[in-house]
Specification:
The chain is built from eight helices and seven strands. It is α/β, with parallel strands linked by helices. The protein has one domain (4-141, 187-243): 3-Layer(aba) Sandwich (Rossmann fold), CATH 3.40.50.
Length: 246
Amino acid sequence: MKKILLVSGCSNTDKNFYSEIHPEVDCSWPKWPELLAEKLNMDCVNLAKSGAGNEYIYSSLLDYITENNTSNIGLVIPAWTQCQRKDFSNGWNMRWTNTRIDSHGDVFSWIRKSLNYYLSFQILCEKYNLPYMQLHMLHLYLDWLTGLKPREKDIAENVYPKEFRHKYPGDRNKDTQRIISLIETYENKINTSKFLGWPLSDEYGGFSLQKKLIQLEQNTMLSEKDNHPNKLGQERLAEFIYDRLG
C-alpha cells in the first residue's frame, strides 16, 4: 500500500480550483500536490480550499491526522497563506467558509496567530512522528501592508473600482520592522530546515513560493489579471518542492 501525501492550502493548492476571472478556462490540470505525490510514489489527500486562511489549513490537517491511521501518512505539507484571512465553520458537520479580511484584530495579532499555527503544526507532526515540510505559499503580510487589491471579480461586478486599495491603517515602514522582530521570536521554536520560505520576510532572504515561481520563469501564471499558477506553474511548483525535500 502506498503512503499518503497529506496537503492543505488555499487556491494555489486546491485541486478543484477554477478562475473567477477566466471562468471559460478549464483549470482541471493536475495541481502540485498530485504531481508531487506521483514523484514520491504516494497517494494524495488534498484538503486545500480556495480562499482558505491559515486556521482552516491547520485545522483540516489536525482533524485528518487525529482521526485517521497515521501509519499510512508518508508526508504532510501545509501551504500557508495570507494572515488577514478569516476562517470559520458552521453547523454540526463543521462546514468551513472564509472571509478575505478578518474584521477583528490587526496585522500583529493575525501574524502571531499564524506563527502559532506553524508551531502547533510542527508539534503535532513531531508527536505523531510524521515527516513534514511547511511552505510559505502566499506572502504572510506583504499584500496587506502594501494595500490589498480588490479581486478582479469585485472590480467586474463594480464592488470596487479598479484603482481601489484597502489602505493599511498604520505606518508601513515602522510596522514592517515590528513584524520582522515578531517573526524572529519564533526563530528558535520553528524547525527552519523544514520550512520553505523562512524567515518569511524578503528583507532577510525569505520568500513566498508564488512570488518565487514568477521570478524563476515567465508564463507560469494564468494571466496578468489572474496570478494563480497555470499548468506549467503547477508543474514548476511540484519540481521546486520535490528538489528541496532532501
